[in-house]
Amino acid sequence: MQTLNITKPDDLHLHLRDGAALASIVNHTAAQFTRAIIMPNLRPPVLTTAMALEYKQQILDCVDEQYSFEPLMTLYLTDNTSAEEINTAAKSDFVKALKYYPAGATTNSDQGVTDIRKPTVALEAMMETGLPLLVHGEVTDNSVDVFDREAVFIDKVLTPLVKDFPDLKIVFEHITTRAAVDFVLSANANIVATITPQHILLNRNDLFKGGLRPHNYCLPILKAEDDRLAVQEAATSGNAKFFLGTDSAPHERKNKETGCGCAGIFSAHIALELYAEAFDAIGKLDKLEAFASHYGADFYGLAHNEGQITLIKEAFEIPETIAFGDSVLVPFRAGETSSWQLKK
Ligand code: DOR
Ligand code: ZN
After folding, report:
1. How far is the CA of 255 from the centre of ligand 1 (A)?
2. Which residue, 126, 155, 185, 248, could crosslink 268 as a Cys pair with Cβ 3.0–4.6 Å?
3. Does the residue 337 lie in any domain?
4. What pTM, to 2 d.p., does this model score?
5. 227-248 tens-digit pLDDT
6. Position 105 confidence tier, pLDDT thresholds 50, 70, 90
7. Residue 292 belongs to a domain
């Protein structure tokens, strides 16, 4: 039987929600990862360091005592985020970044940034303090084709942003295109990217295989095969600019299987198994450890985790549903077989 031991990993992009939903899902992540960067797109969003502290405690209260799990918190950037708030966040030891949602781009982004030239004082304070900006890289202009929104964002928003704020640390989150890979490769060392399992494993045909597949719908949307190949190549290349961020984003079943379904794929139940499968499929398992456990920590200036986890190449059945608050969600690969499993 094939096994793989790696340093305990971190998930550098995760949605945990709050309340009963949080309590029902956080241990899927705590069972796999030592730390995770927690997205702030709650209702209301996490706008201040004080709110992030409260949310962090809420998360810790739900973590099973068998796990040691550290939530790394983020604040939600708005047009009006002050330099003072950035300085307070930078002084805390638990707020690790600001999240930039273009207003209207995705779930709970309506209070996001309407024009990235507006929060200039915040961006300047972030450059000074070294707090990274985590970017949801899609334009919201309805005249732009949904499959082109990341590429247009690079030209219209990200390129000028990098030029105007050359010392700003930027994580281009959940990249999906060859254009994004090329942008990150050609940019300076401050610019890195996270990669999800779905954008390595699926292409846009998977949205329509035999019928409409709402559980494969996320934002940025799945792209064409050439883009998937570029993202897969980046993730498995051994380049420290690309690291693991699942973007696991749970939604109740009824909010996905409906006339206007929410964007988001829940992958926390088999996150490492999915990456192991993807790396194994092209003979790059030797590149998984650094991608999952070193490069992200290095970028955020964190020590590597102590201890190891073991992945075993042994099939197991993925459940059809998973408990979510007082309801259920349909997880990624529901009812299918995983070729790898995490040793418990
Ligand atoms: O698919 C997504 N779901 N993309 C996002 O950017 C947000 C996320 C969510 O919060 O559900
Ligand atoms: Zn996300």
Report:
1. 13
2. 248
3. no
4. 0.98
5. 999 999 999 999 999 999 999 9
6. confident
7. no
* Closest C-alpha residue for ligand 1 atom 2: 264
Q: Which is it for the CA torsion 217, 218, 219, 222, positive or negative?
A: negative
Name the region of 321 (left: φ>0; alpha: ψ -120 to 50; beta: rest).
Answer: beta
Return the pLDDT at 344: 83
The whole domain housing 68 covers 11-271
Q: Write the CATH number for 260.
A: 3.20.20.140
CB of 21 sitting under 6 A from ligand 1 = no
Which atom of ligand 1 lies closest to the CA of 15?
10
Number of domains in the chain: 1
Closest CA to 83 of 138, 108, 120, 132: 120
218 CA: nearest ligand 1 atom: 1
263 CB near ligand 1 (under 6 Å): yes
What's the chain's average pLDDT?
Answer: 97
Distance 262 CA to ligand 1 centre (A): 8
Q: Which two tokens stand for residue 265?
A: 């794929």
Residue 169 lies in a domain: yes
Contact, 167 vs 131, CB < 8 A?
A: no
